[in-house]
């Protein structure tokens, strides 16, 4: 499965596994160019994650798992155990916020720890990476079912989304975008408003691309237009993904998500977070403990080398923010939905 077009999303996939190499669709170049980058070792995969060739919490975790599998497949010295352990460490340093990365590496580490020989490790780690990939796709399909139950809608409606949570960001189908696909499949979707998602433009470059390919009605809007869209009464739900969800139900997601949650509450619009349980980090008590990645100022000052701001102007570029649980109506995972999340409700599902 992991080597095929694994989603029901017009064949859009972020990665192709070939056993001895991993191909990643270079998301930095979309929508202009569909270029695949091949990695044959963990260093290459770690670089692709850090540079955002591949991005989106679940896709980062899956790619990292394949990176560990590659480390074992290509281990060439007597110190094969050290090689794989160093690969896991290197992959863990690639990006800090999405907990799916650490979850996947921990899972790979457990499998590795039980292996007695290099051939066994190579086989077992590859099999585990494929399982992580397949389970993520299955989780996305299950989440879409749970989300529609929570929404409980009878007539077509419009939703607003932020960033990219589709086949490009996951093992296939998508989290929040999977819910949107399912609404469309059931003829319950009027239109998707897609925030462009400054500064990296995941919304305009990736979400609008995926939805257009799949002929799902989409209107692209500047992030600043979200309040006006909500005020117009056109949107019933905001649906977003997550990079890390803490024990009290706080959610780290793409910068600008928190703004949307505040707007949703003001306008009495539903606010739903959709993420696999691999995004839940019950070890952290609250969102204040989540490490928030800051990226280079050039992402804000420039676009593909064209200056958008005075050279050298100081920039603040946190790429995630934390939405407090109190602003979230439902967190939907493949295990079920947590309505009005708080510590007790989260523990009931994820203890
Ligand atoms: O910086 P990115 O593009 O990796 O950020 C992605 C997001 O914030 C997504 O909303 C999140 O990872 C969920 S993807 C299913």
Automatic annotation (TrEMBL):
Catalyzes what?
A: 5-deoxy-alpha-D-ribose 1-phosphate = 5-deoxy-D-ribulose 1-phosphate; 5-(methylsulfanyl)-alpha-D-ribose 1-phosphate = 5-(methylsulfanyl)-D-ribulose 1-phosphate
Keywords, A to Z, come to: Amino-acid biosynthesis, Isomerase, Methionine biosynthesis
- The lineage's top-level taxon is Bacteria
Q: Where is the active site?
A: 243 (proton donor)
Q: In which pathway does it act?
A: Amino-acid biosynthesis; L-methionine biosynthesis via salvage pathway; L-methionine from S-methyl-5-thio-alpha-D-ribose 1-phosphate: step 1/6
Q: What is its EC number?
A: 5.3.1.23
Under the GO molecular function aspect, what terms does this record hold?
A: S-methyl-5-thioribose-1-phosphate isomerase activity
Where is substrate bound in this sequence?
55-57, 95, 202, 253-254
Please list the coiled coil stretches.
none
**Protein's GO biological process:** L-methionine salvage from methylthioadenosine
* Site positions for Transition state stabilizer: 163
* Enzyme class, first EC level, given as a word: isomerase
Q: Name one Pfam family in it.
A: IF-2B
This chain's function reads:
Catalyzes the interconversion of methylthioribose-1-phosphate (MTR-1-P) into methylthioribulose-1-phosphate (MTRu-1-P). Also catalyzes the interconversion of 5-deoxyribose 1-phosphate and 5-deoxyribulose 1-phosphate. Part of a bifunctional DHAP-shunt salvage pathway for SAM by-products.
What family, per the record?
Belongs to the EIF-2B alpha/beta/delta subunits family. MtnA subfamily.
PANTHER family annotated for this entry?
Answer: METHYLTHIORIBOSE-1-PHOSPHATE ISOMERASE
In Swiss-Prot or TrEMBL terms, this protein is called Methylthioribose-1-phosphate isomerase
Q: Write the gene name.
A: mtnA
